[in-house]
Amino acid sequence: MQMIDLIEQKRDGDELNTKQIDYFIEGYTAGSIPDYQAASLLMAIFIQGMNRRETVALTQAMARSGDQLDLHDVATFVIDKHSSGGVGDKTTLVVQPLVAACGVPVGKMSGRGLGSSGGTLDKMESFRGWTFQMGLPQFKAQLAEIGLVLAGQSVSLAPADGKLYALRDVTGTVANKSLIAASIMSKKLAAGADAIVLDVKMGNGAFMKTVEDAQELARIMVDIGDDAGRQTVAIISDMNQPLGHAVGNALEVKEALATLRGNGPRDFWLHCLKVASYMLLLAGKADSLEEAEAVATAAREDGRALQKFRDMVRSQGGDVSQVDDPAQLPRAQFVEEISAPWSGTVASMDTAEIGWSCVRLGGGRLVKSDTIDHAVGFLLPVKVGDQVKKGDTIGIVYANNRDKLIQARKEILATIKLADGPVERLPYFYGVVK
Ligand code: URA
To answer: 152, 294, 312, 389 - which has most CB atoms within 10 Å?
Structure first.
């Protein structure tokens, strides 16, 4: 078999058979297929698409590319969650400790930033010393001990996704349903969770731009999960504006910590509550969504969730004093407010552009080798439908470079559109796929 044949076949719109997909994933994982051929095939897949059989084959090959965990020797029931990616999406940082604090073990593999959307691992690396590098024995020991693990692909689970994810990020091949479904579900299958809650984003800051596309992606992933014997539920949520107020690694960590302390933005807390409640429902900790919400809220109010987060940071080598005093997290040299140029109602926010603007400030990667500046980003306190007066603060830029700060100010001003008349607020959710 030759890689060039697969590339040409897909380029011309033909299906790949399962053996060919296995060959690609095995060869790319082993390093015998170079990045340029893998990138070329990814672009052909991006343009031509994959059918359901190809998508399932790709997912299974990626899940088999490394270890496949069976966690039942350390936990009777393990739950996992995954977001399809968005701007300001720090949900994992709140949901994972919330659910673990309710007695449901959460062993999770997370990713780095992808395109305009941030990554949980990049955010968590705002903590001094924190690492997601661990072997299987530590993964299991930590899951047994504190019921909470946040690992990366380095655990040798789905290593094919680790490599492909980084390549897709810099080759314009992220926003394809089959590639996203295979990426997410291969990690979930390999990580051995019994049940999975998927947070599928839709809107101008998500990879899926319409409710229909988000539903289709959700359906593919729920079916893959069900076929593999994992209970899977997908929530379709809004990404036509950033989630919460903070965009940028350390800023998002601070907002997640505030939320665990009960002081986070309302939209972000309600989002976390919904995701956590579905996880608790699947784990049998409640009989209804309302009951699950009460269980999750109690774990936040009495400080158990924050304690779980602290335990996880400590177990993974992080500096716990930064949890207790978030002012010790990375701080930017330049902080500047952006004022509303005139009075009006926030009509729209170009969410992907806000994400890209953060990447350009240094908060994400434009090429694979870029290093992240954890301190930079934005606080955007306004939401679509909010009324603002001329001169009100509609954003704050955090930067470590004056020129980049000036550029980012301009960019953010251009992403927030004001209108004269009233504007309807955006829904938080668009349904659930089971
Ligand atoms: N999240 C993932 O894990 N993979 C994708 O491809 C997109 C979002």
So the answer is: 312
Tell me how far the alpha carbon of residue 119 lies from the centroid of ligand 1, in angstroms: 10
- How would you classify the pairing of strands 231-238 and 429-433? antiparallel
Regarding whether 300 and 274 lie in a shared domain, the answer is yes
The pLDDT value recorded for residue 77 is: 92
Structural domains in the chain (count): 3
56 within 8 A of 224, measured Cβ to Cβ = yes
The pLDDT score that the predictor gives to residue 153 is: 67
Q: Could you tell me if 302 and 342 lie in one domain?
A: no
pTM of the model: 0.91
Q: Candidates 165, 199, 207: which one to mutate for ligand 1, based on the most atoms within 8 Å of Cβ?
A: 165
pLDDT at residue 154 tops 70: no
Nearest protein Cα to ligand 1, atom 6:
180
pLDDT reported for residue 167: 93
Question: Is 357 found in the same domain as 312?
Answer: no
**How many residues can be counted in the chain?**
434
> How many whole angstroms from 113 Cα to the centroid of ligand 1?
9
Range of the domain at 38: 3-49
Whether 348 and 393 map to the same domain: the answer is yes
Residue nearest to atom 3 of ligand 1 (CA): 184
Q: Whose CA is nearest to atom 1 of ligand 1?
A: 84
Identify whether 430 is part of a domain: no
Percent of the chain with pLDDT over 70: 99
The structure tokens 């390999």 sit at 190
Ligand 1 atom closest to the CA of 111, numbered from 1: 3
pLDDT tens for each residue of 244-296:
999 999 999 999 999 999 999 999 999 999 999 999 999 999 999 999 999 99
Placement of tokens 């997908």 in the chain = 234
Whether 312 contacts 149, CB under 8 Å? yes
Same domain flag for 274 and 209: yes
Mutate-to-test residue for ligand 1 from 178, 184, 185, 188, highest number of ligand atoms within 8 A of CB: 184
Of 224, 221, 201, 220, nearest to 211 (Cα)? 201
Where does a domain end: 278, 305, 324? Answer: 324
CA distance 274 to 159: 30
Q: In the predicted model, is pLDDT for residue 155 greater than 70?
A: no
Which residues does ligand 1 sit against, CB inside 6 Å? 84-85, 111, 114, 179-180, 183-184
Position 275 in a domain: yes
